[in-house]
């Protein structure tokens, strides 16, 4: 963790942007740890919190936009390509991803970044399903803001104990994802109940 903090301190906003952009593209870089480092450096006055936050959001949105457009143009082939790299059974993962997206739809963009694996497939799935660009952009900005803000704030609060913050970050991601899924499930259930009530008897 200290190595990442030192690296961000030496290279500033550019490395934060590059690391998060690459992370969202699928490169094996620890995006949340870079956000923790940025938050800690902001607390110590070595980096501005607001510029770091906005750059992180832009990096996430731009990278996911690349996958969205790829999914929009190439469809399920992009999803299969992603799973063929990370899995021995890409077909099974393709089916699971499609079932998940069919159930929850574009609102998955609000919290998918907290769940490793899901964050890689939701943007291309949104493109393949022909989610409107404006809707994708709106949900993506909110999701990227929640993700960037949560981890950077954690680094800010625990700036003197980042190893502890990294432990909390892994737990916080799981907790927030579970909370978001629960909220989305309740929202969907309520809409379904209202729709059924409107049906003629």
Q: What is the number of independent domains?
A: 1
Terminal CA distance:
61 Å
Helical residue percent band: over 70%
| H/E topology pattern | HHHHHHHHH
Q: In terms of quaternary structure, what is this?
A: single chain
Strand content: under 5%
Structural class, by secondary structure, is mainly alpha
Low-confidence stretches: none
What is the β-strand count? 0
Gyration radius over CA: 18 Å
Shape: globular
Q: What's this model, at a glance?
A:
The chain contains nine helices and no strands.
Give a verbal description of the structure.
The protein is an all-alpha fold and 201 residues long. The protein has one domain (2-198). It is built from 9 helices and no strands. It has helices spanning 2-11, 13-25, 31-43, 49-74, 76-86, 90-104, 118-128, 133-157, 162-198. The N and C termini lie far apart (61 Å). The model has no long low-confidence stretch (mean pLDDT 84).
